[in-house]
Design goal:
- This protein has five domains: 112 residues, Rossmann fold (3-Layer(aba) Sandwich), CATH 3.40.50.11220; 86 residues, no CATH class; 121 residues, CobE/GbiG C-terminal domain (Nucleotidyltransferase, domain 5); 107 residues, Cobalt-precorrin-4 Transmethylase, domain 1 (3-Layer(aba) Sandwich), CATH 3.40.1010; 123 residues, Methyltransferase, Cobalt-precorrin-4 Transmethylase, Domain 2, CATH 3.30.950.10.
- The longest helix has 17 residues.
- Helices cover 32% and strands 25% of the residues.
- The strands form six sheets. The chain has a six-stranded mixed sheet with strand order 2-1-3-4-5-6, sandwiched between helices.
- By secondary structure, the chain is an alpha/beta fold.
- Bound molecules: S-adenosyl-L-homocysteine.
- The site of S-adenosyl-L-homocysteine (SAH) has 25 residues, from α17 and β27.
Length: 583
């Protein structure tokens, strides 16, 4: 809930605008004496927006501050609604994000002063996984550009960090090199370390260490009726502690359906702040486990509850049992580890203009530790990448290698973005990449504005009725196939957009394709030629089938040929939708 406080009429108008945008389910207006409003909002809400001077807000809040982890995020807005200031709780309290939101609604400028945000660096307290340890000291080292090491065992997808990968020495030479480095470190002190692991390790004395806990563990539990929550909890905690496993890496408790409302288990899950997942007994009975037994078979119909449920919830066949079943008087517990899953985002960058790159694409680029793409596309977005992003760019023609590299990096557990211009699924990298990818990685697609749409918006409304895109590149598709499709489009009177229409070495295909279309539509059929849509050198022309000069067409161009109903109206290409009121 976002609590809103105002002291003046202008402030109250601001609150009303925010309330209109957010609705009563998300926001609440506090009315009355300002001090009381601020105190109540701070007490009762997750976020506070105060239309007050920062000074006044600081004075009112000072006595209320408790801890960064629990205090609400606070944003202040000035009387003229020019600035939305993230005053308190930038990360943990969500004030930085809220300032952006408030600014978007009010047309104000967000003011964010958190150091990592100001330099667009990934903050250790905003990783997708919990971080514990010397967060402030290691963050400072990252910001100062000091050497920080990143040790990932194993790798889980993380956003980029300007850190040096930890190397496990393999060859004798590497051993010697590392020994030498360690001697140096003994003199100079060890560099701060970010350590991604679900194991509870002791930091090296004197080395600032942040432990990042991947979502890798599931605890399977069984319990007799009436088993107390304290007993279940103690058993779970004991199992983790003895095996040296971090509680923050536990994502779920798992058990059999029959125990879905067993109080001790439900309360233990709630206490640990994790979800409770349950499975039918028959499903659990099919899981191979090291310690089956008769008691659960008789009670609930499966020879294993704790081990089988832990393994199932941790991914089944790919899961590893790290703590076999252990028992207390009324409960059982076992711990399984999930295999990490890398993440491949296939991101369309749009036709070129920055404001045609979607916010979702920008967010995926910031979240990716590895960006793979054609060098000229990477150049288009390099400024959006966060410090520490590993960029793997290659030149034209290396499609297969790019697809392989992206998938291999995701398989190694990284957060990868494979980028392409326009939409990355249209004559681009999505299909070769996904043809390579097995189901051991997560894949997300971010659509982009494809060239045909960017060009259509420049030309008018040429795609108002049924249309196709056809690539005239016969590098990977035999010309006969292309020609057959052009002919089919011609016969069915579809509007056609040609991609890859003409290059220096491929100059006869476009005239040939236009000739095929001309067999079925008149010489005055409108044709739109758009070069570099949305880019600084954009050039567009609306002409006709008969008048088109193919010499104006190159590889950064799309050519859209109207159908028999397409007309030129006020210089714009218009293909009627077919509404009867509009003959
Ligand atoms: N994935 C891209 C298409 C890649 S094929 C997309 O969805 O847009 C490359 C072809 O796209 C080029 O030969 C050209 O025909 C077309 N193209 C890409 N960007 C363009 C732009 N900004 N303006 C005009 N045509 C463009």
């Amino acid at each position: 809930m976002i609590g809103m406080v105002a002291a003046t009429a202008a402030g109250r108008r601001g609150c009303e605008r925010l309330a209109a945008a957010w609705g009563p389910a998300r926001s609440r207006l506090y009315v009355g004496p300002v001090r009381q409003c601020v105190e109540s909002a701070f007490e009762e809400c997750d976020h506070v927006v105060a239309f007050l001077a920062t000074g006044a807000t600081v004075r009112l809040l000072a006595p209320l501050l408790a801890a960064k982890e629990t205090d609400p995020g606070v944003v202040t807005v000035d009387e003229a609604h020019r600035y939305a200031v993230a005053l308190l709780g930038g990360h943990a309290g969500g004030a930085n994000a809220l300032a952006e939101e408030v600014a978007a609604v009010l047309g104000a400028e967000p003011v964010v002063t958190t150091a990592t945000d100001a330099v667009s660096m990934t903050a250790l307290d905003t990783l997708p996984y919990p971080a514990e340890g010397e967060v402030a000291a290691v963050t400072r080292a990252l910001l100062d550009g000091d050497t920080v090491q990143l040790r990932a065992e194993p790798q889980w997808p993380l956003p980029p960090l300007p850190a040096e990968p930890w190397r496990t020495p393999g060859t004798a030479a590497e051993h010697r090199e590392q020994e030498h480095e360690q001697e140096q470190e003994q003199e100079q002190g060890r560099p701060p370390l970010v350590w991604l692991t679900d194991e509870t390790r002791d930091p090296h004395p004197g080395q600032d260490t942040v432990f990042v806990r991947p979502p890798s563990l599931v605890v399977g539990v069984g319990a007799s009726r009436g088993a107390p929550a304290a007993e279940v909890l103690a058993l779970v905690r004991g199992a983790l502690a003895e095996a040296g496993l971090a509680g923050k890496s536990v994502t779920a408790l798992a058990t059999v359906d029959a125990k879905a409302s067993e109080e001790g288990i439900v309360a233990a899950a709630a206490h640990l702040g994790v979800e409770l997942r349950t499975y039918p007994a028959q499903e659990l009975a099919r899981v191979a486990v090291p310690n089956p037994s008769r008691a659960p078979l008789e009670a609930v119909g499966t020879p294993s509850v704790a081990e089988a449920a832990a393994l199932l919830a941790a991914g089944g066949a790919t899961a590893e049992l790290v703590v076999p079943k252990r028992k207390s008087a009324m409960a059982t517990a076992a711990v399984a580890r999930r295999r990490p899953r890398g993440r491949l985002a296939v991101v369309g960058l749009g036709p070129g203009a920055r404001d045609l790159l979607t916010p979702r694409a920008a967010a995926e680029l910031r979240a990716a530790a590895v960006v793979v793409g054609l060098d000229q596309y990477v150049a288009q977005i390099r400024d959006l990448l966060r410090p520490g992003t590993r960029v793997l760019e290659s030149g034209l023609g290396a499609e297969e290698e790019r697809a392989r590299t992206a998938v291999a990096e995701a398989r190694a557990g990284h957060a990868v973005a494979l980028v392409g211009s326009g939409d990355a699924g249209v004559y681009a990298m999505a299909s070769p990449a996904l043809a390579e990818a097995a189901d051991d990685i997560d894949v997300v697609g971010v659509p982009g504005v494809t060239a045909a749409l960017a060009a259509a918006a420049v030309l008018g409304a040429p795609l108002g009725h049924d249309h196709v895109s056809i690539s005239l590149s016969d590098l990977h598709t035999p010309w006969e196939v292309i020609e057959r499709r052009v002919r089919a489009a011609a016969e069915s009177d579809l509007v056609v957009t040609f991609y890859n229409p003409r290059s220096r070495g491929r100059d006869w295909q476009l005239p040939k394709a236009l000739a095929v279309l001309a067999e079925h539509r008149g010489p005055l059929t409108p044709v739109g030629v758009v070069h570099a849509a949305s880019r600084p050198d954009e050039r567009a022309e609306v002409t006709t089938l008969a008048a088109l000069d193919v010499a104006t067409v190159d590889m950064v161009t799309v050519v859209t040929v109207g159908n028999s109903a397409t007309r030129i109206v006020a210089g714009r290409m218009v293909t009627p939708r077919g509404y009867r009121w509009q003959r």
